[in-house]
Write a structure and sequence with these properties.
The chain is α+β, with helices and mostly antiparallel strands and 111 residues long. It has 4 helices and 7 strands, in the order ααβααββββββ.
Length: 111
């Protein structure tokens, strides 16, 4: 019950466009297994995340946008989602063998 009360309060205090990113950081505890990078969910990225991906991979922001993102299905302003690939719908930036993000030290903030 405490978690539901917190989520109600939290969603009323945080701007809707920032809620998914902040909620993920507050509620998620990483276990370094790579499972959060697979499946039905998706990771929202904004322009700052795209700039960082592009800088890290030494490509242009427009190339990063085209290669690694799709439009946000919920149409959050200024946001896109990281592409999912393969039968397990892995994040396009996941190194499946290492179970780690290829740009881990510069990964999007939601990650």
């Amino acid at each position: 019950m405490e978690k539901e009360s917190f989520m109600q309060w939290f969603s009323s205090e945080i701007p809707e466009t920032l809620f998914p990113q902040i909620a993920a950081q507050v509620l998620f505890q990483c276990e370094n297994c790579g499972e959060c990078c697979r499946g039905e969910g998706y990771a929202l990225v904004d322009e700052a995340d795209l700039q960082e991906i592009a800088r890290t991979l030494a490509i242009s922001p427009s190339e990063a946008r085209a290669r690694f993102t799709d439009p946000d299905p919920e149409k959050n302003p200024g946001c896109r989602i990281l592409k999912s690939i393969g039968p397990d719908r892995s994040c396009c930036l996941l190194d499946v063998q290492a179970k780690r993000c290829m740009i881990y030290s510069h990964r999007p903030r939601i990650c």
